[in-house]
Amino acid sequence: MKEYDAKAPHRAEDQHRCIRISFVVDQRPWRPSLPKKPTTQWEVYRPIKGSLSAFIGVVEAPDEASALKTAIEEFGIINHEYQKQLFVRRVPRR
Question: How many Å apart are CA 44 and CA 60, to the nearest integer?
Fold first, then answer.
């Protein structure tokens, strides 16, 4: 019987085990990932007296209500009066 060198990285048995494991991993059935829901971009505005409105920023959200909530969190609007005055407008897709 042949002796194995201590410096050798693997013995023959270990190499067969690795090959079998990688073979099993490669045989898994392929599953396509679910398509992500497209998020809509919303422009956030705050009305100002004497002018039309002030642009605050753009957020991504699926609907108008969640866009307002996201804007309040992202832009750190803590004043409740300003939160009530905010409005959003959907950004048209190109």
Answer: 10
